[in-house]
Each structure stands twice: as C-alpha cells, then as structure tokens.
C-alpha cells in the first residue's frame, strides 16, 4: 500500500481523487508546495498527484526526488496548461490528468504506475555496479535511517574494518553482515556465522579457536576452530555480548595482532579474517558493570551500525512483504503475490516485538494455510489485525477527517460483517438480508475486507 500525496487547493479534485484511490494507499493532502515539501521530508511519499501550477514553483519535482528518488508524479492541469504537463512528463512524471479530473482517467493511468515504479528502481541500481543484482531487494527502503545504513555499508564493505551491528533481536543483523561480506573483496572466501549465545561457555573457546587432541576430556582428535574455517573470509560473531571472560581475552588477541592458539596447543597461528560482530545488548553498560572488557569493546566498536526496529521503519512494510512473498513462492510454489489491504493496514498498527523475523514467520504460516490468491486476515494472528482497530487516529496526528472516517468505517464493517457471518454460518443470502443490502454489495464488502464466507461455515453447511 502506497503513501500518496495530493498537492492541490481544489476541493472537488481532492475529494474525487481521495475517493477513487482510497484502496490504493494512505492519502494525504497539501494545499501548497511548502506544506507538501514539509510532509514529504517528514515521511516520504511514493506517489504525488500535483497541480502543475503549484508544482511549477521552484524547486519543483527535484526537491521531492532528493528525499525519495523513487517518488512518482502525476500532474494535474487544465487544457490550456497541457504544454507544461508534457514538459513535466519529459522531466520524469509518469503522466498527467486533465482538470476537471474524471474517475475513468485515473483508472486508466494507474497500471502505468506499477510498471514505472519497478523499472525506475531497477535501472537506478543497475547503473550503480556496486550493489550485486541478487541483493537489490534487500537494499530497497524508504526509511531515511535505513538509507543511511546502506550508504555506510557501501563505505565500509570494501575495507577490512571491524563492524559492530547493534539492534533488537530479529532486525536483520545477520542479513546485513552477509550484505557486507558479499560486497567486500572477500566475497569468494568463506562466510562463517557463529551464534555465540547458543554455545555454552565451556565450549565457546573450542568453537572459535579449536583444540588439540587431548586438550580436555573428550577431545579425542584435533579440531580446527571457526577462525581457521573462515581464513581469508569473514567471521560473523552474533550475540558477541554473551561470550565468557576467557574467550574475551583470546578474541582481543585476534583483534590486536591477528594471532591465536588452539586450546591445549603451544603453536601461535596467524589469521586473516574480517570480523563482523553483532549484539542486542548494551556492551557499554557491560563495560560499566565490569562484565565486559573495555579494551575489547573499543576494538569491536570501530565501525558501529545501529539497525532500527521494524516499528520505526513501517514505511518499508510493503517492500518487506513483497520480498518475503517472492521467497515463499519459490519455496512453496503457490504463487501468492500480495496481501489484502486490510492485512497491511493491520501490520502498520502492530508493534512488532519480534521485528522482521516475526513478520517473516507470520507470513510463512499464513502462506501455508492460505487457499486464496492473496493473504487474507483469516490466517494471521488476530493481534496483527486488532491493532488497527485499537489504534484509531486521534486529532492532531496528521490524519485528515476523511482518513479517520475511512479507518473507522473499515473497522466497523469488519466487526459487523464478522459477527453476522458467524451468526449465519457464512450464508451469503441470509447475511445480506440481515444487513439490509444485496448479495452483490455483500460480496464486494467481503472482498474489500478479505473476509471468506468458507471460514464461517459449519461442516454440515455446503
């Protein structure tokens, strides 16, 4: 679902566009260019429908594109202003609509938006040969913080600098570590991931540095450690805050002079390994409490990257959902391309305590259970959908009255229809009669809200 801005001071055009495109995304209005730029800077829009006379003022489309290079434009103009609209199209706008705007013209122009959006993104990054094609989906983001992170990744990846990834569990630290490795000069060498928090303290040194035969009870043969396995490549130390004090000492030695020895061995081994560490804990607090070595922290903290939780980058939800659905289609082959708009609306209001990992797991479960061609609310945890109803926009939150009203109507319709369908066991005619509408109207509402009558039928009902 897109974030859409309508830049116009014409009330009739605003009402028509907001009604026709209500299912296409979250729509906001700006009566002038300064307001539009302010809103776009606070939270970048995907699509802007702009009065050509308002947009023509300096600096025009370029100011919006500097914030979000993938923003699309449709210009609104009168017949006498068509020449300016054509110039805007030459400058990058997807198309134009003649005033007074007609509903059918909007519907005719919408398909071109999806084609243009995908093409522009691919061309922009394919021109920049730094990013490998298979990683283009990963680096898509409308979030200013994530864009900065990817800029930092581009800067640090070609170096040998130690990187420390910070963030809550499930934010994608492991994926970012792989992104760094695959865009470094070591991408043809091993990438070895170690989840330090899953290894007991008594075994962590052996796992990382290896041991000699007879070094301890049960050491029946020599075993190379993960640092030896990663030689020439990258080692990713996840949950680095959990390692024991003795392992901290040995890791510090590796960071300082690139040497280590196996447990029970006297031989000093040299290593050429790039270290990427990650943690969801506060290492500085550990240093203050004396449970984490200060010198090790400083060695790890050469190039810190803090990844925001999913609730702080909700503008990327649509990208992430699309990416996961593509992966699931490859894995399971059901060819489900999207989620119902009401699902995405619920996702936008959910807190996501498990972050991106939780989103991926929820979508996989829903994908397996789904029988329709889109992911519907029926196969998702109720919390993700109730969140939208609980989080009704309040005055002063930047929502227009039309948006608040639409939000309330949708929540009310879903609740009302769900109750009726449960009461009638999913019988369409009976439900429509009780609701005082036609069966055709009911079916439209069910489709809009992702409600499936089969979910309400008892086994005896056919």
UniProtKB/TrEMBL annotation:
The modification 4-aspartylphosphate is found at residue 51. Residues 139-368 form the Sigma-54 factor interaction domain. This is Response regulator with CheY-like receiver, AAA-type ATPase, and DNA-binding domains. Transmembrane segments: none annotated. One of its GO terms (molecular function) is DNA binding. It holds the Pfam family Sigma54_activat. It comes from the Bacteria. Keywords: ATP-binding, DNA-binding, Nucleotide-binding, Phosphoprotein, Transcription, Transcription regulation. SUPFAM superfamilies: CheY-like, Homeodomain-like, P-loop containing nucleoside triphosphate hydrolases. Residues 3-114 form the Response regulatory domain. GO terms for biological process: phosphorelay signal transduction system; regulation of DNA-templated transcription. Gene3D superfamilies: 1.10.8.60, 3.40.50.2300, Homeodomain-like, P-loop containing nucleotide triphosphate hydrolases. The lineage of its organism: Bacteria, Pseudomonadati, Thermodesulfobacteriota, Desulfobacteria, Desulfobacterales. CDD domains: AAA, REC. SMART domains: AAA (SM00382). InterPro entries: AAA+_ATPase, AAA_lid_NorR, CheY-like_superfamily, Homeodomain-like_sf, P-loop_NTPase, Sig_transdc_resp-reg_receiver, Sigma_54_int, Sigma_54_int_dom_ATP-bd_1.
């Amino acid at each position: 679902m897109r974030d859409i801005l309508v830049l116009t001071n014409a009330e009739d055009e605003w009402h028509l566009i907001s009604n026709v495109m209500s299912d296409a995304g979250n729509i906001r209005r700006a009566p002038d260019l300064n307001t539009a730029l302010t809103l776009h800077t606070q939270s970048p829009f995907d699509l802007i429908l702009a009065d050509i006379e308002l947009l023509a003022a300096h600096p025009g489309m370029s100011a919006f594109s500097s914030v979000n290079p993938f923003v699309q434009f449709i210009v609104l103009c009168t017949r006498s202003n068509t020449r300016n609209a054509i110039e805007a199209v030459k400058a990058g706008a997807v198309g134009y609509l003649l005033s007074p705007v007609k509903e059918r013209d909007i519907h005719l122009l919408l398909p071109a938006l999806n084609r243009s959006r995908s093409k522009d993104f691919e061309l922009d990054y394919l021109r920049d040969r730094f990013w490998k094609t298979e990683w283009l989906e990963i680096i898509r983001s409308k979030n200013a913080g994530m864009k900065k992170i990817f800029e930092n990744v581009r800067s640090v990846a070609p170096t040998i600098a130690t990187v420390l990834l910070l963030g809550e569990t499930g934010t994608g630290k492991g994926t970012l570590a792989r992104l760094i490795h695959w865009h470094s000069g070591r991408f043809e060498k091993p990438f070895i991931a170690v989840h330090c928090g899953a290894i007991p303290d008594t075994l962590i040194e052996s796992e990382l540095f290896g041991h000699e035969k007879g070094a301890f009870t049960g050491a029946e043969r020599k075993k190379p450690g993960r640092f030896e396995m990663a030689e020439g490549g990258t080692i990713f130390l996840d949950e680095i805050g959990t390692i024991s004090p003795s392992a901290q000492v040995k890791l510090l030695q590796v960071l300082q002079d690139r040497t280590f020895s196996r447990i029970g061995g006297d031989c000093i081994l040299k290593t050429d390994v790039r270290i990427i560490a990650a943690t969801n804990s506060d290492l500085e607090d550990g240093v203050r409490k004396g449970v984490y070595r200060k010198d090790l922290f400083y060695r790890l903290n050469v190039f810190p990257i803090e990844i925001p939780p999913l609730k702080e980058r909700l503008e990327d939800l649509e990208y992430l959902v699309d990416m996961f659905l593509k992966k699931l289609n490859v894995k399971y082959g059901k060819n489900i391309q999207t989620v119902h708009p009401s699902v995405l609306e619920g996702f936008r209001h959910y807190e996501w305590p498990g972050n991106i990992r939780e989103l991926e797991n929820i979508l996989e479960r829903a994908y397996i259970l789904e029988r329709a061609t889109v992911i519907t609310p029926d196969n998702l945890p109720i919390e993700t959908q109730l969140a939208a109803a609980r989080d009704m926009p309040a005055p002063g939150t930047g929502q227009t009255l039309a948006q608040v009203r639409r939000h309330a109507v949708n929540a009310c319709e879903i609740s009302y229809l769900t109750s009726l369908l449960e009461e009638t066991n999913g019988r369409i005619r009976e439900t429509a009669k009780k609701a005082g509408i036609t069966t055709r109207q009911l079916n439209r509402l069910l489709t809009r809200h992702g409600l499936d009558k089969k979910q309400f039928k008892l086994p005896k009902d056919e």
